[in-house]
Structure formats: structure tokens, C-alpha cells
Amino acid sequence: MKSWRTRVGVGLAVGAAAVAVPLTSTTAFAAGPPGAGWVPVGAGAYPSKAACEASELPSARAGGYNEVWCDDSRRIMPLYYR
User: Fold this and answer.
1) Which end of the chain has fewer CB atoms < 10 Å from its terminal CB, N or C?
2) How far from each other are the two terminal CA atoms of the chain, in whole angstroms?
3) What is the pTM of this model?
4) Please, are residues 34 and 16 in contact by the beta-carbon 8 Å criterion?
5) Distance (Å, rounded) from C-alpha 82 to C-alpha 79?
6) Where are the beta strands (DSSP E) in 1-82?
7) Which of 35, 37, 32, 29 is closest to 78 using CA atoms?
8) How many Å apart are CA 79 and CA 63, to the nearest integer?
9) Residue 43 φ/ψ, nearest 5 degrees
10) b/e string for 13-35 if b means 16 or more Cβ within 10 A?
């Protein structure tokens, strides 16, 4: 039979772990566009980030924007204009 001191110590350790794990875990997410002022406009599949940005720049300019940023961390790249 274990002593009460051991049982209390183990109980406190388990309780602390039960509180610490949810507080320290975060959800994973893709990095957002660099800086401020970017507007999400959609997503598309492109062979590369450069191809995405070159292809989307005329649409961005037609909409009154000057820059395009494609999030290449996903196969279907989210598109942002600024």
C-alpha cells in the first residue's frame, strides 16, 4: 500500500499536467500575409508561388490593388491583394 504522501504527490502532478497541456497547446495554422492591409480574395492551384503572383497581378491591378501575395504553404494557395 502506498503512503498518502506518495498519493498526494502523484495526484498533484497529474492535476498539474491536466491543466498545463490544454493551456500550452495551440492550433496549427498557416502563416498569414506579411504586414497589414492584405485583403483575402480567394484561392487557386498554381505550380509555384511566383506563377501564382504573376498570374494574379493583372486581376489585382484591375481591382485597384498593387500587390499580390500567395500563401504557398498549401496546395490550393490562398490569395491576398493589397
Assistant:
1) N
2) 68
3) 0.58
4) no
5) 10
6) 39-45, 68-70, 76-81
7) 32
8) 14
9) -155, 160
10) eeeeeeeeeeeeeeeeeeeebee
Express as a percent the part of the chain with pLDDT over 90: 54
Q: What is the DSSP letter of 28?
A: -
Side chain identity at residue 80, one-letter code: Y
Q: Which amino acid is at 82?
A: R
Torsion angle, CA of 9/12/18/23, rounded to 10 degrees? -120
d(CA 16, CA 13) in angstroms, rounded, equals 5
Looking at residue 43, what is its pLDDT? Answer: 95
Task: Give the C-alpha separation, 60 to 37, whole Å.
Answer: 14
Contacts of 72 (CB under 8 A, 6+ apart): 48, 49, 52
